[in-house]
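SEVERITY: medium
COMPONENT: batch folding queue
REPORTER: lab tech (J.R.)

DESCRIPTION
The queue accepted two submissions in a row. Attaching both inputs and their returned structure tokens so the on-call engineer can compare them side by side.

ATTACHMENT 1
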Amino acid sequence: MSISRRTLLGTTAAAAALPRMARAQAPVIKVGCLTDMSGPYQDLAGPLAVDCAKQAVAEFGAKGFTAEVVFADHQNKPDIGAGIARQWFDENGVDLIVEVANSGVALAVAAVAAEKNKAYICSGSATSDLTGSKCNANTLHWVYDTYMLAKSTGGAMVKAGGDSWYFITADYAFGHALERDTAGFVTAAGGKVLGDLAYPFPGTTDFSSLLLQAQSSGAKVLGIANAGADTINTIKQAKEFGLKMRLAGLLVFISDVHSLGLDTAGGLVVSNTFYWDMNDRTRAFSARIKDKKANYRPTMVHAGVYSSTLAYLKTAQEMGAAVAKANGAATIAKMKTMTFDDDCFGTSTIRADGRVLHPAYLWQVKTPAESKGPWDYYKLLVTTPADEAFRPLDKGGCSLVKA
């Protein structure tokens, strides 16, 4: 398909300084950040995700090759995302695609990466199918997924007495996977799912009728199986209507909490794999990129784009840039043999199914009285170790996993 000027937003070089002759002769690794630049996920991913890819390139420097970052807006449409990926791989020399904050688009891009033997590392989409039934040798899943979110947030809610659920679900791959995985934990713990409603995505802003139907179900917990602006609107409207249900925001980003404010979000329980104020290293990373978006703190998607780009570049250096460029599956296979360490996630390893392993964290959003200032939003409840946070390797149905 053809890609319009509006869709293919532009290209920016982010290579370390080299003498002109050396730069001309060095291989060029090209990284494509495919993201939501203007839609419901623009704050949790969007332009700052592009900046984080550039930050990784700048910090890596020039070590036998140069690197560039290009970016585009997939508009949350799988056909557009797949079209951009094909154009990048076929015509623009892109070697790696990162981010893609939409599960439907991510599944489409993963298929194109496998077809073209290039590399794709997902940070922004959540569907656990990327390392399950839809896994392939060219794709890694870096930050979080629906299984981890369901186990961490959903499991905690059931243990706290939330044994009957109703779901409001974004009607595409991500929403359905998140509801499916959470419902599995609810029923396994002896709870019940009393109903669900899927709404059109994107484009829905009024959740009032959905909330009223959820309330009438008699369920104790409302499972909010959406993200970004939709999560913000769902929680705000639930508070405005005085909904008599406990809210389970199954994928809540710090950008959502900031938009909601602590008066509304205080007390929510959320899960993630990165929080900007968790330790000295996460604070150091956040400080390095804060000038790219004033008065803002990075989400776990932003952290994932930085971390995954840096890891890919380190792998390309070890195996040789020309080899990495020639064979995406070989590069991904090499990454699965390596251990990575960065300021966002600490130590990470990668399983055969493409699942990147690091701890998951369950947080409670602070009340206004508990917060010490802007962006001081979370207090830690539970840490799930890396080897327990994600779906067991033999339970996902990935064809790459040997019996």
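ATTACHMENT 2
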Amino acid sequence: MRFKISLFLFLTSTALCVARDSGTNAVYLFTSFRGNGEDGLRFLHSHDAYHWSNVPGTFLKPAVGSSKLMRDPSLLCGPDGTYHLVWTTGWHTDQGFGYASSKDLIHWSEQRFIPVMQHEPTTVNVWAPESFYDNRGSQFVICWASTIPGRFPDFEEPATNNHRMYYLTTSDFEKFAPAKLFFDPGYSAIDGFIVQDGNRYVLVHKDNSRPKRNLRVAFGETPLGPWRDVSLPFTREFTEGPSVLKIREDWIIYYDAYRAKRYGAVRTKDFKTFTDISRDVSFPEGHKHGTALKVQWSVLDRLLSVNTQK
């Protein structure tokens, strides 16, 4: 019975968050930030998931964390139609992430700092929190990357830049399960993004080890892992911040080619064979990585009608 209720809630949330979701009738948003993340939450929009344009203005100014930044904004719509936003609040010293919620992406709750790694007092950072809704478990899964110096072999990594991925779960963003190790592939890993592909789950992530610094995938039977069958890299060096959309029969993985100062993408049907489609996608200059998602047309219309640009 619990599974049936969870499935109903998941389908209901899909109806609340996404409408006209077939073929070219879908509309897409991409959360974004500029510079170091000091000016706050921005959005891109697209009608085909290939060509992206700015939504004018910023929609949430960062107010929590020691550095009060809003980097790597991850946006997810929950079962009741509420949008949940988590983000990186600073480069170092912060042992948690930022959180706020909204019904319309314009009016936001009070921002909160969610401490997650205080039980490991030497933790250097909490980077790129990413949310996934586990409909079978009726819970949100939030994963991120942290460095705990001396915890894992450094190889070529500086002791303060040798990441593994951690996670916690919550049903309401009020009570949180203790943080646990999420992904240790034997190399420094950051920027995890979870998708469900049929009966399996895929973790797209950055191999942040030297000299690679590119993207791979791993597979699991649940959104909590254990993660196995780690792929070879499928992007060039100096790529990060993956976000994934399902477009008809294809998956599109967007990524930030940060040394080249451009955005790229690959297309895949099976997460085994990848086709570079970077020449087919376009992004506004200065866009930095967030989350791509489908929304109702009315959501985009409201965002386009508001211009908070100073």
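NOTES FROM REPORTER
The chain has one domain: 2-305.
No errors were logged for either attachment.
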